[in-house]
Amino acid sequence: MTISVGDKLPELTLKESTSDGMNEVSTADVFGGKKIVLFAVPGAFTPTCHLNHLPGYLQSRETILAKGVDEIAVLSVNDGFVMSAWAAATGGEGKIRYLADWDAAFTKAIGMDMDLSAGTLGVRSKRYSMIVEDGTVTALNIEDTPGEAVTSGAAALIEQL
Fold first, then answer.
1. Single pTM value for the model
2. Of 18, 75, 93, 116, whose Cβ has the fewest other Cβ atoms within 10 Å?
3. What's the rounded Cα separation, in Å, for the pair 64 and 58?
């Protein structure tokens, strides 16, 4: 079942690279007591994710934060080292949280998993964005086509803030 507006996010563990190394971070810590913009991509460094989706959030960071958002996070079914390398390659370190759902547990728990084995990617996340307030989804935007970043893009999300 796909998560919906009004639903609470499940409590699971993600990975995140910090100055202290690779750390486990609970979704309760990421989303609890804060207003978070989360967007998810099928894969770090993949064309649409790397060239279209992520750049919009980096460029719109100040506008999003000025609307009362505490943090912006990107999530992908990749390992933490890939997400760390992606943060470095995009200049996003310290600007956006790069969260690794290495085993797709979070993605599956919210019903956002899809099988991209035909394209050699395996199980990945659908492309989406959401606004989460104290762990509860208050807006949700799911792309119909994984190769597009319009419905879940920064410009569309800013209109919802």
1. 0.91
2. 18
3. 10
